[in-house]
Amino acid sequence: QVQLVESGGGLVQPGGTLRLSCTASGFAFSSTAMAWYRQAPGKEREFVATINSAGGGKTYGGSVNGRFAISRDNTKNTVYLQMNDLKPEDTAVYYCRIGGGSWGQGTQVTVSS
Whole-angstrom distance between the N-terminal and C-terminal Cα of the chain? Predict the structure, then answer.
């Protein structure tokens, strides 16, 4: 069965960094585009980034402002989201997603002093 497990979230001060990981199983990861989304309480789920199967094609949402980078390691069935210069407005649950398909359970990112 398809499984996506996010990790790496936590509490960080403004200006700090976090690296999220999503480890996948149950499908052909290396042939599949992956994406990150986020959702804060009371707000719609927002697109953050996507990466194609080989890792060379990347697209980012407008709210990222050049601070985030998506990457993947197909030998480990893992997609990453490197988040730099974090701001309070980045606080949300971050979800890994198979392109056009299943969602992970999410990992909480809180940016606060």
Answer: 40
Six-digit token string for 7: 């990790």
Collapsing DSSP states into helix, strand and coil, what is residue 48? strand
User: Most distant CA pair in the chain: distance in Å?
Assistant: 41
Q: How far is CA 1 from the centre of its chain?
A: 21
Alpha-carbon 80 to chain mean position: 6
The pLDDT of residue 65: 77
Which tens digit of pLDDT belongs to each residue from 35-51? 999 999 999 999 999 99
Show the tokens assigned to 71. Answer: 């990457």
pLDDT score at 31: 96
**Radius of gyration of the chain measured on its C-alpha atoms:** 13
3-state secondary structure of 31: helix
